[in-house]
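Work Package 3 (structural annotation) set out to generate three-dimensional models for the target panel prioritized at the project kickoff. During this period the team completed the workflow that converts sequence records into C-alpha cells, so that structures can be stored uniformly alongside our sequence database. As a representative example, we reproduce one entry of 278 residues exactly as it appears in the project archive.
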Amino acid sequence: MKPITKNSIIAVSVISVVYIFNLIRPDQIIYAIAAAVVMVVICAKYLFDTSISRSSIVADAKFLLMPLLFNISALSYISYIYVGLGRFLLTFLAIVSNFYLFTSLRKLRNLGEKAAIFYRNILVVISFFTVFMASSMTFRLFMTVTDKNLLDVYRAIVVVAIFALIYFVTYFLTWEKGALETKDRAYGLISAFLCAEVVWITSIWLINYPVIGITEKAALGGTPIAAIVVTITYYFLWGMISHKLDNNLTRKVLTEYLTFTILFLLVLFVTAKWLPTG
C-alpha cells in the first residue's frame, strides 16, 4: 500500500468516528462539528506536516480550508435528513469523499502542477458538493426565522454567509489550478458577488425541493430550492473562470455552459411546487 493511501485511510478513520457519532446522535450536531474541526486540524498536521501554530495554520490554510468546509457542511446536512437510510448513505459517501479529498490534497502538495487531472477534478466535484450542502443548511436556518421584524437582518446575514462561502471555495479552486496572482483573486470576488445577488432574490420566496406529499414533515424533507439555484449558478461561474484560466474560453464553451445552466434551471422551476396544495 502506498504511503499516501495509507495515511489517507488513517486520517479518514479518525474523522469517521465523528460521522458515526453524528449518525447515532444527530441532535448533538454542535459537538460533532466541534470534534470534526479538531480532527481535521490533527489530520492536517499528520498528512501535510502543518505545525499547530497560528503562523503555520495561516500559511497552510489552503490545506485546511476545503476539509473544514466540506466536513462542517456534510455533518450539518446529514443531521437534517429525516430518513435513516438516507443518513446512512450520505454518511458513507462523506467518508469516502474524505478519503479522496485528503488523497488529492496530498498529491497536490507533493506534485504541485504535475498532479494528475483526476485528483484536481475530484477537488472540483467535492467543492461543488460543499457549496450545495453549506448553502442548503444556511437557507434551512433562515427558513426557521419567525420574527418578521428581523427578517431582512437575517436575510442580510445569509447573503454575507454565502458570499464568504463562494469566495473561499473559489480561492481554493483557483489555488488548485495554480492561479493565485492578485488579478486572479478578483474571480472570487466577482463570483461571490453574483451568487450573493442570486441569494438575495431567491430568499424572497423559499420552498423546499422536491416535496413529496402535503404534510408539514414532507414539506421540510427536501432541499431549499435557493440552494440548488446557487449551486447551478456557481457551476456556470466556475466553468467560465476555469476555462478563462486555461485560456480556452471560446464561444462554443460559453454556449454549452449557458445551455446546461438554463436547462437545469428550467427543469427546477417547472417541477417545483411554488404554492401549497391541499
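The chain has a mean pLDDT of 82.
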